[in-house]
From TrEMBL:
Keyword hit for Calcium: no
GN (gene name): Eef1akmt1
Primary location recorded for the protein, binned into one broad class: cytoplasm
Gene Ontology molecular functions: nucleic acid binding; protein-lysine N-methyltransferase activity
Organism superkingdom: Eukaryota
Keyword tags: Cytoplasm, Methyltransferase, Transferase
Coiled coil: none
Subcellular location: Cytoplasm
Gene Ontology biological-process entries: methylation
A cellular-component GO term for this protein: cytoplasm
Alphabetical list of InterPro entries matching this protein: DNA_methylase_N6_adenine_CS, Efm5/EEF1AKMT1, Mlase_EEF1AKMT1/ZCCHC4, SAM-dependent_MTases_sf
Catalytic activity: L-lysyl-[protein] + 3 S-adenosyl-L-methionine = N(6),N(6),N(6)-trimethyl-L-lysyl-[protein] + 3 S-adenosyl-L-homocysteine + 3 H(+)
Official protein name in the record: EFMT1 methyltransferase
Length: 213
C-alpha cells in the first residue's frame, strides 16, 4: 500500500523547536502558578489572546498607570478600566486602598472578577448595565483594542458616558489627532511599554493635569 506519511505536512525543525519552546514555557508558567500560591490578579495570570488584539502592558507601565489612576480618582474615587485589563489587575493588587473600580472588557475570562466585570463590546458603546450610572467614575482609563478611528470613536462614547471628566487614554501615536477630536485629550511625555514589542508606537493621552508628564 502507499506510504501514508506522504500526506502529513512536515513542520520544519525550526518551527518544531519554536513550538517545543512555547509549550515548555507554558508548562513552566503553569507550574509557577501552582507553586507560588498563584495570584489571580497578577499580570499574565490570564494569557494574552492575540485574536482579541490583546497585548498586556509591562509590569512597570501597568503600575505607573494604576498609580496615576488612583491619584486622579482621589480618596474614595471610582476608576473604570475600559479594555485595559492589565491596569485593572494592578489596581486589584493594591486592594484595601481607598478606591473602587470596574473592568469593561470583551474577554469573558475576566468574569472571574465577579461584579466588577462588565461585558463590553465597543461596537455597542452604550449597551451597558443599568446600574452603571452616567458620569459615575472619577477617571476612565481606556485602551481601545484596535487602532482605527471607528474603534476610537465608539470607545469614546463609552468613556464620555462613564467619566465625570478625567480621561486617560492609551493608544497609538498615529491616533493623536483623532484622540484630540473625539475626547479632547493631549499626548503626555510618559511612554507606555508592553510586555512584547508592538509594531506601533504607543502613547498616553489625558485631558487633565496628570503625573505622566
Amino acid at each position: 500500500k502507499m506510504d501514508d506519511d506522504d500526506d502529513i505536512p512536515q513542520l520544519s525543525s525550526h518551527t518544531l523547536a519554536a513550538l517545543q519552546e512555547f509549550y515548555l514555557e507554558q508548562q513552566q508558567r503553569e507550574g509557577m502558578k501552582t507553586s507560588q500560591g498563584f495570584n489571580q490578579y497578577s499580570i499574565g495570570s490570564i494569557e494574552e489572546d492575540w485574536q482579541l488584539s490583546q497585548f498586556w502592558y509591562s509590569d512597570e507601565t501597568a503600575l505607573s498607570l494604576a498609580k496615576e489612576a488612583v491619584l486622579a480618582a482621589g480618596k474614595g474615587g471610582r476608576i473604570a478600566c475600559v479594555s485595559a485589563p492589565s491596569v485593572y489587575q494592578k489596581l486589584k493588587e493594591q486592594d484595601g486602598e481607598d478606591f473602587s473600580m470596574c473592568i469593561l472588557e470583551y474577554d469573558r475570562r475576566f468574569s472571574v472578577y465577579g461584579e466588577e466585570f462588565i461585558f463590553y463590546d465597543y461596537n455597542h458603546p452604550l449597551d451597558l448595565p443599568e446600574n452603571l450610572l452616567p458620569h459615575s467614575f472619577d477617571i476612565v482609563i481606556a485602551d481601545p483594542p484596535y487602532l482605527s478611528e471607528e474603534c476610537l470613536q465608539k470607545t469614546a462614547e463609552t468613556i464620555k458616558y462613564l467619566t465625570k471628566g478625567k480621561i486617560l487614554l492609551c493608544t497609538g501615536a498615529v491616533m493623536e489627532e483623532q484622540a484630540a477630536k473625539h475626547l479632547g485629550v493631549k499626548m503626555c511625555k510618559f511612554i507606555p511599554k508592553h510586555s512584547r514589542n508592538l509594531g506601533n508606537e504607543f502613547r498616553c493621552y489625558v485631558n487633565y493635569a496628570s503625573g505622566l508628564d
